[in-house]
Amino acid sequence: MSRHYGVFGHPVAHSLSPRIHAEFGRQTGIAVDYAAIDATPEQFTDALAAFADKGGAGANITLPLKQAAFALCDDVTERARRAGAVNTLVRNGDTWHGDNTDGAGLVRDLTGRHALDLRARRTLLIGAGGGARGVAPTLLEAGIGDLFIVNRTPERTDALVDILGEPGRVHPRYLNDLAGLGEFDLSVNATSATRDGRLPAFPASLVGRRTAAVDLSYGEAAIPFLSWARAHGSHDAIDGLGMLVEQAAESFARWHGVRPDTDSIYGELRARHNALVTAD
Ligand code: ATR
Q: Does the annotation mark 66 as catalytic?
């Protein structure tokens, strides 16, 4: 039976992952059979079982299924456990092994492509959903300073802070408290709010000349937060396109044992998603 790969999400039709994995396959000479598979949370378990029956050997998981994917893995990597969310599945006999390559993808993009030194950066993470969970553990491992987490639903902030398990370094805060938190060296928008073009009102005091503003989205969805940050003088404004390419490369390496070069596909996609990205 031939080995299939794919990305599960809802909606998923506009996912760039099939294009990215096709390019990695071309570059490495590996025949890659990778499709986008739409599944709602209710359909996901059955859809994944059908995929496995047909030779599904690995999958990426995107919105809104990352926490559901975590729940149905038989074992997960440490970084996925700390995230409580899985974006990469690897078939292991009759079971699924789960990993989360989002955080590694983000850190690689920020430190490699954009040459940011993350060490000791006082960091704000806005959001506590699947995206935020994926990147928080790896940002901590990358050596950021204190991490403040805010979210519309405070219970989800608390759950994420608990699972990260570094009291004294990781601080839950309320959205209403933002005005009193001062300036951050790194501000990460991991909410899906701006995908609908609605940016919650943030105090200008969060960003300044030292701040790298990062949105985990790309394209139109990244513009409200990044333009807000630029307007308030942030030093860098970086969208999630590079993270997307880098997390895909990490997943590819897990499945095929080769890490592809990401520059050419990044350049190709950047030409088509030219949101404001500046790091100087
Ligand atoms: P993702 O995988 O993109 O993180 P998710 O798990 O659905 O998707 O999480 C979405 C995040 O965006 C959550 O932090 C969510 O806040 P809640 O936990 O309170 O739902 C946040 N979010 C979505 N719409 C928002 C809005 N209009 N204002 C503020 N936060 C919002």
A: yes
